[in-house]
Design a protein that fits this description.
Largest sheet: 9 strands, antiparallel
Structural class: mainly beta
Number of strands: 30
Shape: globular
């Protein structure tokens, strides 16, 4: 159902991405638009802004709904819950019980990125305000596959809200423990930003984009799994100050985050476009991941509440596990804000 147009140009409407039903948040006055695939993980598969009359895609969009649903091609903004990153050998023990998850990584050995990545969510609320348009989605255990429920037999409700305002996209997640036991989880976002935003002489590829991350400590990992706590890295190897990404491939996780008040801040600059993408995460997020793939014009700057394999780290002798355990009946809320701004080159 379409929300009537507002004088300030904001509206919410139903539409299609190829053949897939989507919810579209848009502002007709400034040309911004965000597209959410409700039935495939409530993934924001596209988000565009305008600058000087030019439409600029902020996110790498999946080639098709079928590719996104298959998990073979991740793009947009995947929602990672309750396990961001890998769970070793797709199994864990919690409160004395052992559970087995689907083996979903490329090697078929570990579980990766949780249970709601491609699951169907439900649109429960939508609307516009004076300077925004929003849509809210929910998911419960009944929306998961039988195999997923067996591996994670806890009772929960997630409430996910996207809010489009000017050139920003706010992502709020609420978790309610509706069961009789503690609810173990972690949460992360995996935005695939187009990098560069605009191919130009200054930024012919992502190597010329400048990156900033609020940490000088990196987790040691093997096959994406932590082998110890965060370790200090040399100034030349961190991104505390803006510096070019370079041609190196990244799958690096940073810990011991530096906060400014209630937020940590990461992002990248595209000098050719004169634009900067900033990601603000509240204090629930204790890690950042920097990720690139070969032959893909994208860059992922990912806030995580915990490291991969967090549910197993204490048993493996790593104290800084970051796992959230929510008591029965309790709720938990967190917020991330992504914004695109002009900057002077």
């Amino acid at each position: 159902m379409e929300v009537p147009n507002q004088p300030n140009g904001y509206r919410v409407e139903a539409g299609f991405w190829q053949t897939e039903p989507v919810v579209i948040l848009r502002n007709d006055n400034n040309g911004t638009q965000a597209t959410i695939a409700t039935g495939i993980g409530a993934n924001c598969v596209a988000w565009s802004i305008t600058k000087d009359g030019q439409r600029i895609e902020v996110l790498e969009t999946p080639p098709s709904p079928q590719e996104l649903r298959s998990r073979h091609f991740k793009a947009g903004i995947p929602i990672l819950w309750p396990f961001p990153g890998r769970v070793r050998e797709a199994r864990y023990t919690f409160e004395g019980e052992e559970y087995h998850l689907p083996r979903t990584d490329k090697g078929g050995i570990h579980h990766i990125h949780g249970l709601v990545l491609t699951a169907p969510w439900h649109l429960t609320q939508q609307g516009t305000g004076q300077n925004q348009a929003f849509a809210e989605f929910t998911i419960r255990p009944a929306d998961l596959t039988e195999e997923d429920r067996a591996g994670y037999p806890f009772n929960f409700e997630l409430i996910l809200r996207y809010t489009l305002a000017e050139r920003s996209l706010t992502i709020d997640l609420g978790v309610e423990n509706q069961g009789q036991s503690s609810l173990p989880f972690g949460y992360g976002l995996h935005p695939y930003f187009r990098a560069p935003l605009v191919v130009s002489e200054k930024t012919p590829d992502r190597s010329e984009c400048l990156v900033m991350l609020p940490s000088s400590n990196r987790w040691p990992t093997v096959d994406g799994l932590p082998t110890g706590g965060p370790e200090a890295v040399k100034p030349a190897e961190n991104f505390l100050s803006w510096r070019p990404l370079g041609s190196q491939l990244f799958d690096h996780m940073y810990g011991k985050i530096i906060y400014d008040g209630d937020w940590s801040l990461a992002g990248f600059r595209d000098p050719g476009a004169g634009l900067v993408v900033l990601v603000r995460a509240d204090r629930h997020f204790e890690e950042w991941v920097l990720f690139t793939q070969p032959n893909r014009p994208s860059l992922s700057i990912e806030p995580y509440t915990c490291p991969p394999n967090s549910i197993n780290l204490a048993a493996e002798g790593i104290a800084e596990d970051g796992l959230i355990t929510l008591p029965p009946g309790d709720t938990w809320q967190t917020r991330t804000i992504i914004e695109v701004n002009d900057f002077n080159v």
